[in-house]
Amino acid sequence: MDSEPQGEAGRAPGDSGSLRGAVPHSCWCVRRRTPSQDESPSLSPRGEAQGQQPPQLEVDQRAWQRLEQFILGQLEELKQQLELQEKELGHLRLGVGATDSEKRVQYLTLENKALKQSLSLTRDLLLHWGPGPLSRAPQEEAEALAELQGRLQEAQDTTEALRVQLGAQEMQLQGLRGALQQLQQETEQNCRRELQQMHGQLAGLRARMASLRQGCGDLRGLVSTFTQSCQGSLSEARGQVSWALGALSAGGAGTKFQEAKQGPLARCPGRLLELKGNIRVLCRLRPGTPSSLVSLEPGPGGTVTTCYRGHQRRFRLDWVFPPHASQEEVFRELESAVLSCLGGYSVCIFTYGQTGTGKTYSMEGPPEDPGIAPRALQSLFREMGTGGQHRVTLSMVEIYNEAVRDLLAPGPPQRLAVRQGPAGQGGIQVAGLTHWEVPNLESLHQMLSLGRGNRATAATVMNQHSSRSHALVTLTLRTASPLRGPATSGTLHLVDLAGSERAWKAGAASTSWEDRDGPQRLREARTINRSLLALGGVMTALRARRPHVPFRDSQLTRLLQPALGPGATAVLLLQISTRPEDLGETVCSLKFAERVGQVELGPARPRRAPRSGTPSSLSTETPLTGTPCTPTPSPGSPPSPGLDSGSSSALSPPEELPS
């Protein structure tokens, strides 16, 4: 009997690898208990069974030992299964799919149920074996039974703890899945955001590359233009040296020598203009009480510093004249530009600033201290007197309330129409404009005095004789000399702009002067401001190199279009005041001058005169064109100041010049 239970008990721990091997062993123990009662019916009395008590007790102890080994094996299997579950959970944390994890949870649930069934069968075994043959040693049996029950309870607790731990791990797995999904979404969003930023940076780099390529192309064009200019200058210098040598070798003829000498004088200022730049800004301060709000550093490249409303700003200009600068010093800086007209260049000199800062004084000046215009005319006629054949024509207009009026018309000033020139010729044409040919300086001064007398002026708070219009004086100089090559046609524009102050500043909006003149002064101030604003828009477009420049926004900008076009040269003389009450207007004028100083019109180019010597053909080369040069005023018109009715020789028809 002992060998069979030992063999079965010995196989029990070996079969503990699965629950299907453990359950049949427990069932065998139950079946084994029933035949043991039937084999010894005669031993039911207690006295008869005492003789067999030691062998039976030994058998029971071996059975209990086998049962204990079986239960320990079951507990060991539970621990191993718990470790396997923890490993499975670890794999799930590393990214196992949701479907496989659910299947695994179901499998673990079923296995937990099987373990519970095995524990239940073990409990039944203990209950069945409890009142058995160990009744002879009740105290030992009770202790063994209590120990087994404790172990059973411990196994149940362990199973329950494993179940709770499994649930917690399932919840943790779900949390990890959610965190993983959120991390994937955030990573995707970050990647998209970075991709968009990279696309933006790439677009910026492409635009920058296109700009650099365009700048490189512009630089190449400038280099090519500079090279051509240098070559032309070198060729011209060689030609001038040849002319001078030829004149010297001819000997005796002082006139020829003077003509050969005058050639470089007429052309060198143009070269100087090309080096200095096309639009230059000169600033002149009106003499007055020094102010701490306006300070300056005079000289070339000087600065003007203002302190307005608590903000300090510095403006750098091409030349800054101090308040004590003389008329001669100002003209000396402009003389090279004026003389370049004899070489065929187009030059425009205009004054800008508020009323009362000295624009008209700097442009015209009193007879004892003449300004830019008289000195320029004197310098031109002095150079023309050195030799060669010259012809000078004069026109003078004003822009009053957007109406162009001829100030040199034989009768009262006439309103003229401005239109675009014919196709292929370009320029601006003023229908009916009178051109006077002036043979000498005296006649030219007489005509300018006539034009200034016809100009519109009015009294304002800023000035008792304030100019209420823009005045444009145009001189066309055609020069021909056999020693200097083809004839050239240069143009000199002298522009005296009206005051740039606002209407309320000039007092034009007030009716304190005369009630009937108040609305007219206000209209004049508004028209002047609109035309100067249009001029500022033109300068802004030229500075930005826009393809469209709004020259047609006002009559002023339309007439100045040839003077501000490619190949022309412009000089702005800015007049400012140091008075504290004028500080706001001073800052506005300096801002305008700063924008103008940034405009580039391209290299200055001389122009050849047309082959025909008729005044009409000459007028097509000038910005202000109209009727042919009139030799004398029309009959019935008042004579010019200083000219009698018989002075027609002073204003004679033009003669044919050699080409």
UniProtKB/TrEMBL annotation:
- Where would I find the Kinesin motor domain in this sequence? 278-599
Key words, A-Z: ATP-binding, Coiled coil, Cytoplasm, Cytoskeleton, Microtubule, Motor protein, Nucleotide-binding
Question: What's one Pfam family the UniProt record gives for this protein?
Answer: Kinesin
Q: Which regions are flagged for Pro residues bias?
A: 630-641
Per the record, the GO terms for biological process are:
microtubule-based movement
One GO cellular component term:
microtubule
Q: Say which domain of life the source belongs to.
A: Eukaryota
In this chain, composition skew of type Low complexity spans 611-629, 642-659
Localization (cell)? Cytoplasm, Cytoskeleton
Q: Does the keyword rRNA processing apply?
A: no
Q: Which residues form a coiled coil?
A: 68-95, 145-186
Q: Which PROSITE patterns match?
A: KINESIN_MOTOR_1, KINESIN_MOTOR_2
Q: Where is this region: Disordered?
A: 1-57, 601-659
Binding residues for ATP: G353, Q354, T355, G356, T357, G358, K359, T360
* InterPro entries from the UniProt entry: Kinesin-like_fam (IPR027640), Kinesin_motor_CS (IPR019821), Kinesin_motor_dom (IPR001752), Kinesin_motor_dom_sf (IPR036961), P-loop_NTPase (IPR027417)
Is Metal-binding found in the keyword set? no
Molecular functions per Gene Ontology: ATP binding; microtubule binding; microtubule motor activity
| Similarity section | Belongs to the TRAFAC class myosin-kinesin ATPase superfamily. Kinesin family.
What does this gene product do? May play a role in microtubule-dependent retrograde axonal transport. May function as the motor for the transport of multivesicular body (MVB)-like organelles in dendrites.
This protein's name: Kinesin-like protein
Task: State the organism named in the record.
Answer: Vicugna pacos
User: What taxonomic classification does the UniProt entry list for its organism?
Assistant: Eukaryota, Metazoa, Chordata, Craniata, Vertebrata
